[in-house]
Amino acid sequence: MSRYEAGQLSPARRAADLRRLRGERFDVLVIGGGVTGAGAALDAASRGLRVALVEARDYAAGTSSRSSKLIHGGLRYLEQLEFGLVHEALTERGLLATRLAPHLVRPVPILVPLPAGAGPAALPARAWRRSYYGAGVAAYDAFAGVFGGGRGMPLHRHLTREGARRLFPSLRADAVAGAIRYYDGQVDDARLVVTLARTAASLGAAVVTSTRAVGLIRQAREVTGVRVRDMEARPGSPDAEFEVSARTVIAATGVWSDDMSRMLGDIGARPGLRVRSSKGVHLVVPRSAITGEAGLILRTATSVLFVLPWGGHWIIGTTDTDWTLDRAHPAASARDIDYLLEQVNTVLDRPLTTSDIEGVYAGLRPLLSGEADSTSKLSREHAVVEPMLGLLLVAGGKYTTYRVMASDVVDRAARRLGNARPSRTADLPLLGADGFPPMWRDRADLARRHGVQVGVVEHLLERYGTLTVDLLALIAADPLLAAPLTGAPEYLAAEVAYAASAEGALHLDDVLTRRTRISFETAHRGTESAEHAAEVMGRVLGWDAQVRAREVEHYLARVEAERQSQRMPDDATADAARLGVSDVRGFAADRGVGADVAGAELPH
């Protein structure tokens, strides 16, 4: 079996991995299918360990699908003097863009506008700001490595006011005195996570979604496994709950880490860390709403604001506010939306309004809690703690440094297991990366051989890399899959079929929200695509008419609940509106943790 075949997360593979969970004893069991959990599973599997991963919902269902879509060092962290974090993140950016995932991470130009002032008296201030920002961006480039192909990004450049407005004509002429252009990496965050999970599976890991950890198994004060509930099993089925045995359990549960901490406290163990949730909201508007060939980074009173090109759209975000309500489905309120519009309109020549908005999404950042009053000042460093023998918690950090976090926690697990092999993931390309540069170079020939347009091949290559040949094979076997998805012409029906047959998608929401981004890239939020997508998925997963109807009904209700929440004035009312629709996997919103660990529900 080839590496690509071994990494297919098909329905048959899920059934086989469930049997493995019931019958094997693993060296490492990872709880959590976000970027850190999937990265930890890959790291452990690459060292030859026997690995399993369980995720209560879907890969990247939480924080890891709701970011600003950047692989970056964090320019603002230079101001906070977190030089080590910036250097570490920029090193990881270079690895992802050049070696690990060049098909998923690519350069995006971003302008740092320099504010204009009125009259000659403003000249000294303008000169000082250009020097100050210029020094910061120069340091950013220096931390990434000024020379060599490993940096993966072009160097920065200073621009005059005219030069800035040529690149970004929508900038108000009276708002800027010039700009500095630099580059960071852009990524479809959810696609990177599913690719990490598939790469781990290709190395022998059992990775299963819709498997919810509901209790720790322990002997004396040592954790020896986890009790798991299969959320796809029939209610009352004797196979619905089972125990997974493991020598080490890694909890990579992000904003749910404090739930684990409280559970440990109930049995007298000290968790050793505390995580605080910060809500970040993003708006999506059509590319035609703003004229520009680069992104923007703007300073606000509380954080920074990005305006980033995203295919035929712009992503505008983010907010940075405390969130203490439902963590599974954080809601954006009208206040969040108005704040983002107000901030971005300070520099645009044509102000945006709510009528320009195509999509909205909200996510939660897991920040290690400290003494700072504002979440924007909390550190993005990560921590690894071992509150009980056999149980490791990893929390904090940022999306870009997922590989470092994974390596650190697996190092701890490996030492405990007596495995002396170091992490290999810095030199391990993800699925789809091998052979990507020559396939991209020869994309016209690839399109001609398969009888499709070059633009179709380019779209697939930027999402699947060299796995594109698998989707072209699906189209060759069933030419109907070459058709665009109803209501979302940027995507092919083949991508929906592939999500269900090879990428572990189990529900319509998985495809419209994470395998594709139709849920926020279309003004209808995917409602016009739901029937067609359910029909294609149903052929792969064996859905009858009743199941298809239920999936569509749930998706439509979810979209309506989110629309209602975005009309609410504050967090409390927005949260209440969003909670009107339960999760498609059948469990209630994740808000309470029981005191009895044997029966309590763990976070995911």
Task: Please characterize this protein's 3D structure.
The longest helix is centred in the N-terminal third of the chain and has 22 residues, at 123-144. The strands form three sheets. Strands 3, 4, 5, 6, 11, 12, 13, 14, 15 and 16 form a ten-stranded mixed beta sheet that branches. Strands 1, 2, 7, 8, 9, 10, 17 and 18 form an eight-stranded mixed beta sheet that branches. Strands 19-20 form a two-stranded antiparallel ribbon. The model is unreliable at 371-379 and 587-604 (pLDDT under 50). Strand 13 and strand 14 (313-317) form a beta hairpin. It is α+β, with helices and mostly antiparallel strands.
Mean pLDDT: 90
**What Rg do the Cα atoms give?**
24 Å
Overall SS class: alpha+beta
Taken from the alpha-carbon principal axes, the silhouette is globular
Major sheet size, sense and barrel closure: 10 strands, mixed
Q: Span from first to last CA?
A: 31 Å
**What is the strand tally?**
20
SS strand fraction: 15-25%
Count of runs of 4 or more consecutive helical residues: 21
Segments where pLDDT lies below 50 for 5+ residues?
A: 371-379, 587-604
What is the helix content? 25-40%
